[in-house]
Amino acid sequence: MRQVAILLFDEVEVLDFAGPFEVFGVADRKADPKSFQVFTVAERGPVYARNGLSINPSYLLNDHPKPDLLIIPGGGGYQSDGTPYGTRREVDNPAVVNWIRRQAARAELVLSVCTGSLLLAKAGLLDGLSATTHYLALDSLSELSPTTTVQPVDRWVDTGRVVTSAGISAGIDMSLYVVSRLLGKEVADETARYMQYDHWV
Q: pTM value?
């Protein structure tokens, strides 16, 4: 059973974390034991996602199982007064960035959704790689990681250990792709069928 850790933070985009949570949570659902155990991790709780959704993380940064898959969701921007929120704030949070760097070093795969790629970039995990992100954050990704080749039209980019996806719903596609990569396309197809996610082909 692979342990799947999903980072949470205030103003996280709901579908960025909930989409992958659902995919890995129901993938190979009839297997015993299941192929994936999904949990959330945050610096503190509760977390208030976009539009005020309150979430209690499963674990805190200093106390959680070792992740085999690490998922960094996105969500964020700037208030009218220029104050950053979500990922734009967290890129300057050493506790979160250092935690990502440490967990990535021991994970089998590191995934990002939307502007979660900015956190990977700040942690130095995209240096010299190709990556994608939300279309409104492409320039920010280039600024944070000048050696990264930004792929503006791809829904996800697989570089081996690191897989990044474009905005929001693309995280579901990426997660199904990773399920296909790890367990086979039949399992990914059945997962999409169970979710009635018709976009997956």
A: 0.97
Quickly count: other Cβ atoms within 10 Å of residue 25's Cβ: 15
Q: Do 46 and 38 contact (CB within 8 A), yes or no?
A: no
pLDDT digits (tens, 9 = 90+) for 33-65: 999 999 999 999 999 999 999 999 999 999 999
Cα–Cα nearest to 73, from 153, 139, 147, 5: 5
| Cα separation, 103 vs 27, whole angstroms | 23
Instruction: Say whether 141 is catalytic.
Output: no
The position carrying tokens 């991790």 is: 41
Among candidate residues 114, 129, 168, 176, the one labeled active-site is: 114
Q: How far is CA 176 from CA 50, 126, 164, 188, in A?
A: 24, 22, 13, 6
Per-residue pLDDT band at 199 (split at 50, 70, 90): confident
Name residues whose C-beta falls within 8 Å of residue 201's C-beta, 6 or more positions apart in sequence. none
Residue type, 67: P
